[in-house]
Amino acid sequence: MLFLLPPEWPPWRNSTIRVFTTISITAKMIVFRFILFQLCVVYLFYVVRHLHLD
Questions:
Q1: 19 within domain boundaries
Q2: Containing structural domain, residue 36
């Protein structure tokens, strides 16, 4: 992504890198929370199923 920026735009480079970094960090946090939520749901589902089977 950084190589696509033209070298004659020094003022835009830092802000663009900052925006991309913020977006990537936010996306990682959203994906991480989503995976944790899915794991908790699956874990609770199995626990409830095993409790009902006993």
A1: yes
A2: 11-53
Q: What is the rounded CA–CA span in Å between residue 13 and residue 27?
A: 21
- What three-state secondary structure class fits 1? coil
Cα dihedral 27, 29, 35, 40, rounded to 10, equals -150
Higher pLDDT, 42 or 10: 42
pLDDT beyond 50 at 21: yes
Residue with tokens 């989503």: 34
Integer Cα distance of 3 and 7 in angstroms? 9
Whether 18 shows a pLDDT value over 60: the answer reads yes
What sign does the dihedral 7-8-9-14 (CA atoms) show?
A: positive
